[in-house]
Amino acid sequence: MEKEKTKNKKRKTKIKKPIWIGIIVICLGLIIYNGIKIVLWNIDTGNLDKQIEEIEEMTDVKEIKDDEDTENINPPSKNTESDYWKYIKLPLISVDFTELLKKNSDTVGFIKVNGTNINYPIVQAKDNDFYLNHSFDKKKNAGGWVYLDYRNDINDLQDNTIIYAHGRTNNTMFGTLKNIVKNNWYKNTDNYVVNLSTPEENTLWQVFSVYHIKTELYYLTSSFGTEESHQKFIDTIKKRSVYDFKAEVTTEDKILTLSTCWDNTEKVVLHAKLIKKAER
Questions:
Q1: Domain ranges of the chain
Q2: Cα–Cα distance between 50 and 72 in angstroms, integer?
């Protein structure tokens, strides 16, 4: 009996040993894999940071006053209490695109979002995939860049103009867009505008909806076949907002949509309407 017990113990030991070796190998593999990911992330981040610094140095961004070329878009009745009348008094920004276009011919605009770190040139490719993993210099980079939906025309605005970027944890690209659903952002009325400058015109947009939602395609619709579907879209995205901006939006308005990742399954979204523009 004692011999049999000893044999059984040896068998169990032999069985357990390979299992533990397998677990150790798997753990070491995961450590190495995650270590490589961290190293690559840091390399990409360093390259992005350098490009951002270069862009800040080479780009001339000016605030400009209204003149005879400035047009107010779809103003509400002056008898209506609307923040519209407050925001159209704000200056447009005008960007010199000379150096940016030399650096990247895909450059189509420049965006600035109040209350965030978003202050970047916008690029556009023939699809929505290229700038997911290529930076402004068109080199491979997991950080990507800020880009316009390939279906949109920045010079001939559709119903909904859509701009994407990664929500990076170091607050570059659209990393700080996640702030828009926090009350210290949306309770500050100075944050309710987005400036967009292109080689053709400068525009100002009034924020009317901010939220995060399970990943979907609906809010990424660029144009609508009927006024009914267009109005339903406006009603839907306004109802989703975590805050009531009390902004009037109609099917006559042009909408700007900013989209980034909230987490692995959700997106954070900002919608604004065009309120002022000036040709260059």
A1: 1-58, 62-279
A2: 38
pLDDT of residue 77: 74
What is the arithmetic mean of pLDDT over 163-170?
Answer: 95
Active-site residue 261, yes or no? yes
**Mean pLDDT value of segment 24-34:** 63
Catalytic entry in 261, 268, 275, 278: 261
Indicate whether 170 pLDDT > 80. yes
Residue 229 Cα to chain centre, angstroms: 25
Amino acid at 170: N
DSSP letters, 210-234, are: EEEEES-SGGG----SSHHHHHHHH
Residues 133-145: pLDDT tens digits?
999 999 999 999 9
Give me the residues paired with residue 257 across strands: 162, 271
Query: What is the pTM assigned to this prediction?
Result: 0.86
Backbone phi and psi for residue 205, each to the nearest 5 degrees, phi listed first: -125, 140
- pLDDT at residue 105 is higher than 80: yes
Looking at the structure, give the CATH architecture of the domain made up of residues 62-279.
Beta Barrel (2.40)
Report the C-alpha gap between 130 and 148 in whole angstroms.
Answer: 11
What is the DSSP pairing of strand 160-164 with strand 255-261? Answer: parallel
What are 280's two structure tokens? Answer: 């260059």
Query: CA-to-CA distance for 125 and 219, rounded, in angstroms?
Result: 21
- The pLDDT tens digits for 32-88 are 655 555 555 567 788 899 999 999 999 999 999 999 989 999 998 766 678 899 999
